[in-house]
Amino acid sequence: MSTDKSFCAYRMALRASKGSGIPYLGIHTQDLVSLAEANKDFRPDGTVHWDKYRLMGETIMSIMKFKHPGYKIDPDLPLLLSIADCPVLSEDELYKKSILVEPKVNTNPNSRLKELWLRLK
């Protein structure tokens, strides 16, 4: 999953999807934490900062829409056993494997300019 533009591709796919799904909770948790930290609970005049809570509610609702309807899937015993036999990896091992599968994208604009400049030489 690309992190470009704050997971823009994921967010677009999420909005376009219908029915059940499994959202990536890490992104939504990050959104909620950012909203909580970036916005005060109260405005300077002492009133509640309702926009903060509205945005937090919209974030939660974007996750909750995947709760219903549920999936109607019959259990597949060989698949369940295969999943149960998977090794439990540490966070570092998972990170290394994720880089192998999907290398980091260099989003530094200066490196892109440098790359173009070197091509011209």
Give an overview in words.
- This protein has 121 residues and is mostly helical.
- It has one domain: Orthogonal Bundle (Son of Sevenless (SoS) protein, Chain S, domain 2).
- 60% of the residues lie in helices and 0% in strands.
- The protein is built from six helices and no strands.
- The longest helix has 15 residues, at 50-64.
- It is flat, with a radius of gyration of 21 Å.
- 1% of the residues are buried.
- The model has no long low-confidence stretch (mean pLDDT 85).
How are the elements arranged and paired?
Elements: H1 4-16, H2 25-38, H3 50-64, H4 77-84, H5 91-101, H6 109-120
Helix pairs in contact: 2-3
Keywords: Guanine-nucleotide releasing factor
InterPro entries: Ras-like_GEF, Ras_GEF_dom_sf, RASGEF_cat_dom, RASGEF_cat_dom_sf
GO molecular function, one term: guanyl-nucleotide exchange factor activity
Question: What are the defining features of this structure?
Answer:
mainly alpha, guanyl-nucleotide exchange factor activity, 60% helix, Son of Sevenless (SoS) protein, Chain S, domain 2, 0% strand, RASGEF_cat_dom_sf, Ras_GEF_dom_sf, 121 residues, Ras-GEF domain-containing protein
| Strand residues, percent | under 5%
- Uncertain stretches of 5 or more adjacent residues: none
What is the count of structural domains? 1
Structural class: mainly alpha
CATH structural architecture: Orthogonal Bundle
Describe the global form.
flat
Radius of gyration: 21 Å
Distance between the termini: 34 Å
Continuous helix count: 6
CATH superfamily: Ras guanine-nucleotide exchange factors catalytic domain
